[in-house]
Amino acid sequence: MCNYFFTVNKLGKKIDDYYVNKALQLYLEGLTYREIERILGISHVSIMNWVKKYNIKRPYNSEYHPTYKILNALELSSYFQSPENIKGAGVIVTELGDKFMLIKWERFKE
Q1: Strand pairing partners for 13?
Q2: pLDDT value at position 43?
Q3: Crossing angle, helix 44-53 and helix 17-28, to 10 degrees?
Q4: Do 68 and 96 touch, CB atoms closer than 8 A?
Q5: CA separation for the pair 60, 93 (Å, rounded)
Q6: CA angle, 28 then 50 then 93, to 5°
Q7: What's the pLDDT at 46?
Q8: How far, in Å, CA of 47 to CA of 19, rounded?
């Protein structure tokens, strides 16, 4: 798993809404506050505050935890060319600056 840090655009002391939305999306996908902090470069405390402020609730499932990768466009294209990478799994791709985050989880995990 790659860790990249992204520059967060701040408007004064306010973080750009784009990053607030990304952080909340990643939270709903099952990533922890600290994982989101490492990916977006935003304090985990800020993320916790947004989850509370917007009353975001995710379903509780202790066995569900997706894996994620940070890829550039060429790596993403190559990833999808291999059928074994996506067979039997759910995949979501979201933009992160000039990179892409691929979130994957096993659909039929026992």
Answers
A1: none
A2: 95
A3: 80
A4: no
A5: 22
A6: 35
A7: 96
A8: 10
Alpha carbon distance 2, 73 (integer Å): 15
Report the amino acid identity of residue 99: K
Structure tokens at 14: 């306010």
Q: Please name which of 109, 79, 103, 84 lies closest in space to residue 28, comparing C-alpha atoms.
A: 103
Reduce the secondary structure of 1-65 to three states and give it as a string. CCCCCCCCCEECCEECHHHHHHHHHHHHCCCCHHHHHHHHCCCHHHHHHHHHHCCCCCCCCCCCC
Q: Average pLDDT of each block of 10 consecutive residues along the chain (110 residues)?
A: 51 81 90 91 95 91 76 95 86 90 73
Q: Which residue has the tokens 């066995």?
A: 63
Indicate whether this model's pTM tops 0.85: no
- Site of tokens 């499932």: 61
Phi, psi (deg, nearest 5) at residue 95: -75, 140
Element (H, E) at 74: helix 73-80
